[in-house]
Known about the structure:
Elements: H1 7-27, E1 34-37, E2 47-49, H2 50-63, E3 70-74, E4 77-81, E5 91-99, H3 101-105, E6 113-120, E7 125-132, E8 137-141, E9 146-150, E10 157-158, E11 172-174, H4 180-189, H5 191-198, E12 205-207, H6 214-220, E13 225-232, E14 249-253, E15 259-261, E16 272-279, H7 282-291
Parallel strand pairs: 3-5, 11-12, 11-13
Antiparallel strand pairs: 1-2, 3-4, 5-6, 6-7, 7-8, 8-9, 9-10, 13-16, 14-15, 14-16
Helix pairs in contact: 1-2
Amino acid sequence: xxxxxxxxxxxxxxxxxxxxxxxxxxxxxxxxxxxxxxxxxxxxxxxxxxxxxxxxxxxxxxxxxxxxxxxxxxxxxxxxxxxxxxxxxxxxxxxxxxxxxxxxxxxxxxxxxxxxxxxxxxxxxxxxxxxxxxxxxxxxxxxxxxxxxxxxxxxxxxxxxxxxxxxxxxxxxxxxxxxxxxxxxxxxxxxxxxxxxxxxxxxxxxxxxxxxxxxxxxxxxxxxxxxxxxxxxxxxxxxxxxxxxxxxxxxxxxxxxxxxxxxxxxxxxxxxxxxxxxxxxxxxxxxxxxxx
Length: 292
């Protein structure tokens, strides 16, 4: 029988250490060196930087202290930890070691995160964990609880989400538009949607950032909907641990508005989805799809 692992305490320690490392790198203006490209991604959208490697290596090295065999699916590679040849993996982890590399590279102090989800051997999410380096906030979510705290006080807040159920409640829709490619896709695919939303009494606020870091904010209720086209699976999988509560939705859809539930499939992790929406209320996600 596998021992019970306190993932919350383990990663609280990991990110407390990593927070200090990233602070020092930023002060020294380090971490911007380009180490390579990201598999399955256009170099105009994302690249592998030194800051990614530092975060990735710190997390991997820290996890070696846990005796259970784990498979890590990082945005920048696959890694096996503590696995003798005759055993199976007990845990799978989808990891985005540093989300916000373009912002970091351009000295924009906004949305620098590490995000990951721990899965069991059947690809079911056990926990979502994230750290916001700018606000120094640590997030932890499992099927029963969602908490966050400032890394300096470690006083956890329990979040009880008040879900919005109608698009006329001034919902917040997130989408990544900071690269020209994604901006063009958003413009191309959302004309009908924007026209419809603009006619509402309380039209939505559009938050122009996304990726794996958006999922803690979805569960917290800061963002209500995340809508993307040509979305990489590596930007979804690390956030799935924040989408396990009742009524949360991660949906793929096509031009005919046929909808299917998104699931973690590591064998396809370098592929992209034509159209994708996530929300803390399935009804909101379906309303958005119907207006596109």
